[in-house]
Amino acid sequence: MNIENLLRETLSDMADEERPPAPDRFLQLHERRPRRRGLALAAATAVAGMVVGSTLVVQQMSAPAPGAAGLRPALSPQAMATVNVAAGMRLSQLFKQLSQLTGRPVAEFERAAKDGTALGLPPYAGRTLEGLAFPGTYEFSPAASPAELLRPMVARFKAAAEDADLVDGARRTGRTPLEIMTIASIVQAEAGTEEDMTRIARVIYNRLNRKMHLQIDSTVLYGLNKYGAEASLKDVRSRSPYNTYRHLGLPPGPIGSPGADAIRAALHPARGSWLFFVEVDPKERIMKFATSESEYVALLDERQKNLKGR
């Protein structure tokens, strides 16, 4: 059987299969010339690459991002790889995982992230991919280019943004869409439950409206490329633009990839006059809120008692 007949027969079989999902569920790969290992085998490999290598699987993720990705060897171009974009994951973590899976340098993914046009980033994002690589599980061919790997994450974000009515919702709050995503990323980093998300978002808005420093540790740690639950005294003295103890207003951009719940919370915060929040029981992820400094101090004392009791 020659190459043309083999391709025709394979594509004919594909035509009888179930109709594929919407276009944004697929990872499109550039055509690559197969190595000459016999014409029939080469043609079959090319067809398999078009079918299997283009599949993209997306599932909603809600687990917090780990502090660092585990070491994994790069896969061969013929193998399929899976990367998990956890809610709250930073681009630096994602690029490290993709580098380990594909064998490509992290710098290649960093360069690809700066080409907003190639990735399909919305105009309000500028050249900012941070926060817009939507959480999910993505299956891909390691032979794909960095832009091809990142583009479906952006497509999934745009679908989620449309579902949340991000652009119009941001306008109603008096904020830009990117500012909403920045708030959502902070909410994602700080919250333990979905209920906490809407209240943390309210605290952020209340402090912004009162021209108060946000004083949020997760933004400080992001600016210093650190991980953890609390910033140190040295950290909060840093001159990083993400140091919300030093600088008024929101940080320059998102500090991770928020999920759909965090985006909704940023657009629709709970009603309340809270100005502080404290995770009084870190083990149980119990968050409490305060409207005054005296209440805030009491919550700090409660936290210390819980920590000492364990």
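(the above was protein one; protein two follows)
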Amino acid sequence: MPVPTRRTFIMKTAGLARKVSGWGLLALMSAGAVHAADARYPKRPVRLVVPFTPGGSTDIVARVMADAMQASLGQPVVVENRAGASGLLGAEAVAHSAPDGYTIGLGTISTLVVNPVMLAQSARLNPAKAFVPVVALASIPSVFSVHPSLGVNNYAQFVSVVRAQSGQHNIGSAGMGSIGHLIAERMNADLKIKLHHIPYKGQGPVVSSALSGETQVLSDQYPSSAPYVAAARLIPFAVAAQERLPALPQVPTFTELGYPDLNDLAITWFGIVAPAGTPPAVILKLNKAANDALQRAEVQERLQSMNVKALGGAPSHLTRLIEEANRTVRQMVQEQGLKPIKVR
């Protein structure tokens, strides 16, 4: 039997990859694919599309990772913000790019799981067919807080007040059909309360509304709320995290309170994806660059300073996160009778 040549190996790998659909593609990869990679990749800068506006926790982590990945790739990783339609515009920009490894995207629970279920426009973009997972990057806990005018200091007091004054308090989100919208619906169902949901155009205005008292209840990624919690401008009553936060040891997780699904839904995770059809060897090279970056001391210190948990690992780790979130979100949407929403 003839010994397979390098060219034969590449052709067989590519042909096999084309026969596999969805998030299972990466399971076919092996270390041998790395050796078959074109050693010249990347020959120019790599573009990392972030589907949200600059300045948020997700954007900050993306920039930290982009800087650190350059050491392994030997080329700059340039962050490009493409916000709009709850992340759909940025996701489409990645999906429609050439599958050559020079355009990759930051995928989140919003763009990979929530949008396909909750946004009517997402019918034109199926993440399982449009993207290949590269790596899970990080997860960010959320903090649930109230405006001081509510006069509560813990979870029990919060529930007592909002139940006694049913429908009289507002909670904001970054828009109809957003992850924040789903969290608000889940809170009402699980906690047996009635908060009035107000959609805004982005998370920045949501935080501003909570600080002003226009909305009295806020769910937000911990890094962006932390300064206001520390200054007592927001009063925390629960967190969504794997365990209590060192900075808020007195505040319980929703899992502790008996609501694990709400807890998991509100933990923000994200990773890197590439357009479907990107060569497996390129995916693995990007995966290695991201994992190397996560091991750098300066990256770990930066993430820990924001209470961000580094993830990393094989592409299959991101696949599992997506599949688990899909089950949770789709079950919740069905139970609540929520319908797809058209956004601009």
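Reviewer note on protein two: The CA atoms of residues 149 and 284 lie 51 Å apart.
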